[in-house]
Amino acid sequence: xxxxxxxxxxxxxxxxxxxxxxxxxxxxxxxxxxxxxxxxxxxxxxxxxxxxxxxxxxxxxxxxxxxxxxxxxxxxxxxxxxxxxxxxxxxxxxxxxxxxxxxxxxxxxxxxxxxxxxxxxxxxxxxxxxxxxxxxxxxxxxxxxxxxxxxxxxxxxxxxxxxxxxxxxxxxxxxxxxxxxxxxxxxxxxxxxxxxxxxxxxxxxxxxxxxxxxxxxxxxxxxxxxxxxxxxxxxxxxxxxxxxxxxxxxxxxxxxxxxxxxxxxxxxxxxxxxxxxxxxxxxxxxxxxxxxxxxxxxxxxxxxxxxxxx
DNA sequence: CTATCTGTTCTGAC
DNA sequence: TGTCAGAACAGATA
Length: 310
What we know:
The chain is α+β, with helices and mostly antiparallel strands and 310 residues long. It has 7 helices and 12 strands. The protein has a 5-stranded antiparallel sheet. It binds a DNA duplex (14 and 14 nucleotides) through loops.
């Protein structure tokens, strides 16, 4: 699932496995998905893998960086060795498979893990024989080549306008409050927005998507409908902590689920298990005796407990 | 079968 | 200026 915790999980996995390798080939199956001249990255070595908001970056030689955005249904699959290619579903052993592949992004049924599949848009081949598959069912995601130097945090040119990284030190409750209350031209005024909608703006805080926005409000015991301008300092503090907690739990989960990802039940277990409210409509609240309700805010599904989120 | 839902983000109309 | 629908697209689910 391509929100911050998922992209972070992919980053950690790729860091261990592709740094130092050289790209031997790039196959583009969906031209719209790849922006730039793919030939430029062939022959370049992977220097580093990083993340900013929901964007994944792979630094290469020659001041080149590959940027990935998975959008809603993007997925990255690294298959280490062609020798261990899975032949049929019956032979799909979790242990065997997880040793040789690394998967991150949008969950799909396990049959689809034979790579490439019908959703494969770009394939990178590395010097050690491994392959990185960029899959994206809805083709909203993209890969692009940019100059590494343009990826500096301050630069809006290639990464867009992004607020602070929620898991870094610079993200304090005061910064969150400032960004939420800031009103200046060219920027959305969040004051009259529901708090859940406001924290999904990447300029306020980077990387919070629809799931974690609901989860953050639950952790903060805050009604997602509450207007930003009505929040007290105490509530900004709770919101700040709620965001951090939800993302950290997501990362913890993303890391621990990876190995089980290929199980038959893996897909459902993927996020429904750890979420407190997301996707839990009608279920008992984990924090009180209430029932989780689903509403629409800013056009997006929103889950919360009316009883304990005030 | 049809209708409606979906984890993202940008654009343009009103 | 703020709000909203629609566009990119494809599949799962009711």
